[in-house]
Amino acid sequence: MTILFIRYKKSKNILEGGEQGSQKNYNVLSQLVGEDNITTYYIHDENRKKSVWDYAKGVLYFPFNYYFGLTPKRVKEIVELAQSYDVVFIDRSVFGIVAKKLKEANYKGRIISFFHNVEEPYFEAKLGNKPGKAVLLRCIDQNDRYACQYSDKTIALNPRDDGELYQRYGRRADVLIPVAFKDKYQREAYTSSMTGEQPLCLFLGAYFPPNNEGIVWFVKNVLPYVNIKMKVVGKGMARLKEEEPALKDIEVISDAPDLLPYFEEADIMILPIFKGSGMKVKTCESLMYGKNIIATDEAFVGYDVDYDKVGGKCNTAEEFIARIQDFERNPRPRFNAYSRQMYLEKYSEEAVVEKFRRVLEE
After folding, report:
1. With contact defined as beta carbons under 8 Å apart, do 146 and 100 qualify?
2. Which domains does the chain show, CATH number per domain?
3. Which of 46, 88, 165, 244 qualifies as a cystine partner to 12, CB 3.0-4.6 A?
4. Could you read off the pLDDT of 224-256 as tens digits, one per residue?
5. What pLDDT band is residue 47 in, cutting at 50, 70 and 90?
6. Residue 267 carries which DSSP code?
7. Which residues of the chain form beta strands (DSSP E)?
8. Alpha carbon distance 125, 76 (integer Å)
């Protein structure tokens, strides 16, 4: 079996959340069919300098449902290239127009579309009040519709996204495959130290409206009432510190080349996220590193875990305060073996291989 893998971008630095999910998809498909049998088509290449015309073309084609980076010429190129492959795997549903054009060209192979989110509500939160938002949201919504209408198989992350796809577009996903990571934390032994009386709490997340709103809310409504040390780590978050006076005394690290030291030093991962779609990659990372996690319903969407064993599920300031104060009074292992075990059983690449196999074989 040969696969043409349509991917958003070739990254030159740290993989962001969505790209980590794309890398997982590529890794698992490579295990199943062999890396030599997969060709990746990148819509963007961060190593190539973009011209003003590149950006202008992106804006020009939004009204015609070509998401940023796609043009009629490039889609035609993909359709012609696809004729030599058994499967076209469209890694992001915002490129649903590719599925439409493949069907119109009588492509004989199978088209599989992967939904990292239900994209319209995700971009609604991401874009805020940016100009041209309505045009872009229409383009995104239409591409999700195309992906549902023209794909032979669709993959969503969790039951919430599946239900919303059905409500919006009248099609349920053929299979649910959660966020998963390649294991980067295999050790012969893990730390046996305990959380401190003044726990170090880590918020991990890039500059992005739901992340920004969540951490600012936490700093204003929870931090004054607990005895903790706080760090914020994420791409572009120095910008938030400049914009938000509440963060002036918080240690903020932007664009860290390696997150491992921050995970290892943290006593607790704090994930106060209240809006979103899909699943939160930072939750999966936290499970992989065996962390205590205190998070909202939104941060835990799609994760089948015992919240008390992981750390705690909190949605109000009072709940966050009470849970953190319990950690202060009752130290527990900094390495949460239950979190790590849940990752291995449910959210590692190995845990999702068979689900991908069924998608390819059925």
Report:
1. yes
2. 3-177 (3.40.50.2000), 200-346 (3.40.50.2000)
3. 46
4. 999 999 999 999 999 999 999 999 999 999 988
5. low
6. S
7. 3-10, 38-45, 87-90, 110-114, 153-156, 175-176, 200-204, 229-233, 251-253, 268-271, 292-295, 311-313
8. 32
